[in-house]
Design a protein that fits this description.
The chain is of the alpha+beta class. 28% of the residues lie in helices and 25% in strands.
Length: 424
């Protein structure tokens, strides 16, 4: 499978935009550094659809979208005190048009991997240094029809909800639906730390490297990615089985299947990490169109033996402790990060006892109609230690993107869909 780059350029905002430093909150600066690669796969519309994924249409709409989301046209910068910020200089987003000898059928059973990310998302080696672009985009035309849109958005600039909001805006402008656009809320001052800081909770498990464990038994290159589909009927049965929310029910099942697949000893302690979107939970709440990172890391732990010997709702109820946090927790965390030692920021790796599952559920992940229909597939281009749960369009089905050692993954799939383990 090969890629031929047709054109690579910088697309600048179509109008003058504010220039200068753009402040990043503590929640922005304590996410995983680097780009979050995502792919959108579009099926061809046939001969009756001229101009399918016209690069000119996309380029013009991108320039318009960057007027509203002007920080994404800037670069990572550094304030005089050494704090990372965005330099709003209008240099533009990286926009690549490419061709591939890959066929659509080759990607129908897409598996996230570094190879897929390298092929469909523009590379940029220096992820955290000053001058790094914040938005990488690639439109790849497949042999025999079909298009892959690959996106790499710098996590310091925005979270998943803001990322999908940007794609929603870009695609609306491309199809001539400017009336559908909701401008982003760019003011990040609501997430400034208090003076003096008031820390009311223990945040060390989620934001201290030593607390998370320093060893993992697998490097990212040793992990195999997969996307599992849970039907609407299966999801409803699972939720009825636990009496909890769909997310907590799914994650509890994932948690147990992971521990069994890894054959962990009963006395081992397992910690499950997740992220809670605080937009609606702050007081006063942030607008839903808040642009930036508004998620806080939370976690819950249990002994392996207790999880596996208990009904599934045991794990789901434990998870409720991690997902039920509100304004006080978020304010405490922002203040904690104001004074935390940066040397102990958590890395990406996790020990085999632990896992990290993030929800994209309820986000506009498939609202990406550029004028030629919604994507057939939306997925993380690569997955390692962070797993994702998200809706598959309006079907009611749910996707789970995971990555494990190959032998663990085989066993995980068996357990995940085993009717004896879970009464689907």
């Amino acid at each position: 499978m090969g890629i031929n780059i047709i054109r690579s350029e910088l697309v600048k905002p179509s109008e003058a935009t504010p220039h200068g430093p753009f402040w990043l909150s503590n929640l922005d600066l304590n996410v995983r550094s680097g780009y979050s690669p995502t792919i959108y796969l579009f099926r061809p519309r046939g001969d009756d659809c001229p101009g399918f994924f016209s690069a000119d249409v996309l380029r013009r709409a991108l320039a318009m979208a960057l007027v509203l989301f002007y920080p994404l046209a800037g670069r990572l910068g550094m304030a005089p005190d050494g704090r990372v910020e965005i330099d709003c200089n209008g240099e533009g987003a990286v926009f690549v048009v490419a061709q591939s000898d890959v066929e659509l059928d080759d990607l129908e059973d897409f598996e996230p991997s570094k190879a897929m990310s390298d092929m469909f998302v523009p590379p940029y080696d220096k992820e955290v240094g000053a001058g790094a672009p914040l938005l990488l985009l690639q439109v790849t035309f497949l042999r025999g029809g079909g298009v892959v849109l690959g996106t790499g958005m710098h996590h310091y600039a925005l979270d998943g909800r803001s990322s999908f909001h940007f794609i929603q805006t870009w695609s609306s402008l491309a199809r001539g639906a400017a009336g559908d656009v909701v401008p982003p809320f760019l003011d990040r001052s609501p997430l400034r730390a208090r003076s003096p800081p008031v820390v009311l909770f223990d945040h060390s498990h989620e934001y201290c490297q030593n607390a998370a464990g320093s060893a993992t038994s697998a490097r990212p290159s040793e992990l195999t990615g997969a996307i599992l589909r849970v039907t609407n009927a299966q999801a409803a049965a699972l939720r009825a089985h636990t009496g909890e929310s769909l997310f907590r029910s799914l994650v509890a099942h994932i948690w147990c299947c992971t521990l069994m697949a890894r054959a962990l000893p009963p006395d081992a302690k397992s910690r499950l990490y997740t992220v809670v979107d605080m937009r609606a939970r702050l007081s006063p709440p942030l607008p839903s169109a808040y642009f930036g990172n508004a998620g806080v890391r939370t976690s819950v732990s249990a002994k392996v033996g207790d999880l596996l010997a208990s009904p599934l709702n045991f794990g789901a109820r434990r998870l409720r402790m991690a997902t039920g946090q509100g304004d006080e927790y978020a304010r405490s965390l922002v203040d904690y990060l104001e004074t935390a030692d940066e040397r102990f920021k958590p890395g990406r790796e996790l020990p085999d006892t632990d896992l990290r599952v993030i929800s994209w559920m309820g986000m506009a992940s498939h609202d990406a109609d550029f004028g030629w229909g919604e994507p057939a597939v939306v997925a993380p281009a690569a997955v390692s230690y962070t797993w994702f749960i998200y809706n598959i369009g309006n079907s009611g089905d749910i996707a789970l993107a995971v990555a494990m050692k190959p032998d663990h993954l085989v066993r995980f799939k068996e357990l995940f869909f085993d009717e004896n383990e879970m009464a689907w």
